[in-house]
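Why do we bother with holo predictions? Because pocket geometry can differ from the apo form. Keep that in mind while you read this record for uridine-5'-diphosphate.
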Amino acid sequence: MVLDSIDVVVIGAGAAGITAARQAAECGKRVLVIEKRSHIGGHCYDRLDENGIYIHQYGPHIFHTKNRRVWDFLSRFTEWHYYQHRVLGLIDGRLVPIPFNLHSLEALFPKSRQAGLERKLIDTFGFGSRVPIRTLKASDDDELKELSEFIYEKVFLHYTAKQWGVDPEAVDPSVSDRVPVVLSRDDRYFADPFQGIPRAGYTAMFSAMADHPSIHLLLQCDGRDLIRLEAGTIFLEGRPFSGEVIYTGPVDELFASCEGPLPYRSLDIRFEAMDVDRYQEAAVVNYPNNYDFTRITEFKQFQLSPPLGRSVVCREYPCGYEKGRNNPYYVIKNGDTEALFGRYKALADGYSNLHLLGRLAEYRYYDMDKVMESALGLVSSLFMR
Ligand code: FAD
Ligand code: UDP
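The structure, written out:
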């Protein structure tokens, strides 16, 4: 593909970039995707290891969404293992369902107290509701308040401190809202109607999406080496480019951190292979109150008919982000970072054909489906008017 004929440049071949590229190609546009790593998929990248187990290189990924458009779009490129994610947490020496639900209550409280608490919870919030821990903590009923303090202390306090490396009070409350207290016996981690794991892996799904005659993929190339931003004009290989540029990397890096670096939280993900059929009771076990890691994932439990005799797990040790040394896994949401992001967004808005997309470029704690929804929305707004 010659650069002259390109309509859209996408920087980054993760969930955001590949979804946008495919949608743009289907709108008749010629798309160049530039990825600095040697593989596509971004943080959703997985690979089949020598044991026949799909390893999620950048931490466990389970697809879930309420959005039928996103689900139908992806279903064109993969068959699904209709996996429903269940997580256990080690609390007071017992493995109980996380999010904390009525089964967790049963496991941790004597029958005499559990029945009364259950009734009160349901009378107050309604059966089946998903109550953020901060809402439960704000209850003015003494018994519910005491229960909320117990759940906060056992499930959230120490996990959040480990994960974010700060006083949990300093973490934006929307972060723990992701894992509400569930007033039912539904042990699933997500309540979304569409859930699953691509049968042949995420990387294969993204490869199928990128497989289009109008998509040209350039790996191991930093997009910032090909484009230059100057006084409202984007230059591609030194010449003004009037097509659209969709950038999905860290937004501060695009502007050489001129306003100061945006902070990210990272993980040291340590893998261990072993000669066992099954290592633990659920695909993911959380350790809110023990160890320096937050959770252990056993990958074969995400798979249909996994091989016998071997298993691979990973432990996630949260740590600070250091550019070039580890990955910007999580954005850190607070008033200061929102203001800083706003300054980068204003710089980006100075280029009418530059679009920030995805978890790092939009600086949002986005799950995969939200990134894809955003990508489909952006491309529709650009080319389907
Ligand atoms: P990324 O995946 O970060 O992709 C950005 C791409 O851009 C990367 O490939 C990067 O190499 C490339 N890039 C950056 N800068 C440049 C440049 N200058 N030039 C060229 N290329 C560049 N979501 C879920 O829905 N379910 C889950 O279970 C889930 N689990 C998660 C677990 C962990 C540990 C983490 C960290 C995230 C999880 N997520 C999950 C979120 C999910 O990973 C993200 O929503 C998704 O990967 C974001 O895609 P993206 O394309 O925006 O960003
Ligand atoms: N969380 C917690 N205890 C848990 C699980 C989650 O305190 O057992 C909190 C913690 O602050 C975490 C947030 O809820 O960062 C979001 O959890 P989620 O599982 O969504 O995190 P992710 O999978 O994105 O790492």
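The mean pLDDT is 97.
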